[in-house]
């Protein structure tokens, strides 16, 4: 509620209480009180309402109580100073007996006495008129001095300054008009029309049209109104004016959301005759006060609009569009539709950094219909742009050839979103801070790193991870003008590929060498069964057995990665690095290990004969029939390869060595079903005694002699002590 309305309401409460002590015509009228509420300075000067000076001091106290909200003191009359006149003017006390009050200046010559010889006009019985016209007139005069209508608290009809110049106005008072017949059902005159529009002086201009009517000597038009709907009866509204013309200007300000007008026509042979005739309704029309005095403010992302509320407002529709748009008052532009907006609205525009215009339109409910006022004047406000940190969602995609990232975000209210792709992290102090755009490059976000196209999609883009980058940082930046707000950086890291991986057999252990992976902190070897290399992994949730992990420095010191393998199977190598507390694994490199089959041999003299025994740590592969060997002897040194020196002839003895074997000595050895060294020997190969013709310093050595099989385990033959291979060790007797 506005201050003026609070003061006016307090004035009217004071006047109602004062009427219990003083006569109504000694108190200020509504028009004077309205003027004083709008301009309290009139309580000092009086202005065009000198009657205010009589009550200046009490009314100033009323103003004070109204401003602090303690109007209950006025209602209970507990402050005696509120009802003491300011000037030493005699103010008559109200008498309990009913008297005929003298009419005030605006209702001069209210009654003209007709000539004695004239025949009195027959009076029509109505629902309001008494049988004694004199008594009725006396009561009406008293009521007219208080209100001008049968509704208490309304002001009398009083011509304003502009109306005094209207020669068509008449001074007939409300009580002088005949009452509407109690059984009448008024309908607007066919062909007549009433229009109410504001004029340039702030008043309301009423004009009406009439159809062709039989000419009467006298025709009066009575205007009544109220700040709410009322019955189709001139005595239920406030008596405003009487005119013989077809227009009138109402300069009284509205006190509620709308004002309802009724214009009634009275016809007769004279004006005296006309006022006693039954009224004819010309029309009923409401004027709805448009929203005015809209105050706009912007705070952050919110625009707030305020105006003074008005009683009887049903709702206020608010429309908002950017200033450069032509059409504002369209349903699609209505905002805040879920509230009545009686005193204002709150609105968050979709975009900032723009100027918006707003229009408000008041709606009231009259006789069950929702009616609209004229639109308010357009008011504009610049919604300041505010940079903000824009969160992004990053989804990685790998098609086996390229790695890309789908970056999506919600477009901010203003400005543009730039996505930067960098190989190194931007300055950590930059995140969530507002800086100037020109400073971005100094913090690690250069223009060349700008990854998205502002002319394309406004809420997503695709970022490619270059093949030679092992770290990528994706950073969103909201730019408005020359201001930038850096959001949260999303990062991904990876390691390079392991190259040239080779497994070297060392019989009792294996050595793995490879080219060290780019950006890798360590490499882990995982062992699994043959054929599972692509499925095993270094993490607890993946199958496989982790053999060993090695850092780059240890790898360089040891010349490779050493470990004993349990047998044939697959080995997967995983390079990894630790980033932000997480271990990032690279793609595996898988090697197949065939395993190793170890052979050994011994020379023995049994019964004066020299024998060779061969052992194996595992069974012969099913793909191979017999193991092939060759025994070589060299006169001066240890034989170095299967073709070095001379081949020694042997013959196989199956079972015991005590019985001679009929087989002939022959080159080469074919062996099957060899046993481990800790088991009983079942096969021997007797060495041809002809080797005794070699010098005693000659050395013998056994070699494996069979084609390589890529699927079979690697064969390894372990020599005994070299002293056991000298011929003179066995030729002593």
From TrEMBL:
<dbReference type="Pfam" id="PF25834">
    <property type="entry name" value="Fn3_SaeA_4th"/>
</dbReference>
<protein>
    <submittedName>
        <fullName>Uncharacterized protein</fullName>
    </submittedName>
</protein>
<feature type="region of interest" description="Disordered">
    <location>
        <begin position="92"/>
        <end position="165"/>
    </location>
</feature>
<dbReference type="InterPro" id="IPR058694">
    <property type="entry name" value="Fn3_SaeA_4th"/>
</dbReference>
<feature type="compositionally biased region" description="Basic and acidic residues">
    <location>
        <begin position="92"/>
        <end position="102"/>
    </location>
</feature>
<dbReference type="InterPro" id="IPR058691">
    <property type="entry name" value="Fn3_SaeA_1st"/>
</dbReference>
<feature type="domain" description="SaeA fourth Fn3-like">
    <location>
        <begin position="498"/>
        <end position="591"/>
    </location>
</feature>
<feature type="domain" description="SaeA third Fn3-like">
    <location>
        <begin position="399"/>
        <end position="489"/>
    </location>
</feature>
<dbReference type="InterPro" id="IPR058693">
    <property type="entry name" value="Fn3_SaeA_3rd"/>
</dbReference>
<dbReference type="InterPro" id="IPR058692">
    <property type="entry name" value="Fn3_SaeA_2nd"/>
</dbReference>
<feature type="domain" description="SaeA first Fn3-like">
    <location>
        <begin position="199"/>
        <end position="286"/>
    </location>
</feature>
<feature type="compositionally biased region" description="Low complexity">
    <location>
        <begin position="103"/>
        <end position="116"/>
    </location>
</feature>
<dbReference type="Pfam" id="PF25832">
    <property type="entry name" value="Fn3_SaeA_2nd"/>
</dbReference>
<dbReference type="Pfam" id="PF25833">
    <property type="entry name" value="Fn3_SaeA_3rd"/>
</dbReference>
<feature type="domain" description="SaeA second Fn3-like">
    <location>
        <begin position="293"/>
        <end position="379"/>
    </location>
</feature>
<dbReference type="Pfam" id="PF25835">
    <property type="entry name" value="Fn3_SaeA_5th"/>
</dbReference>
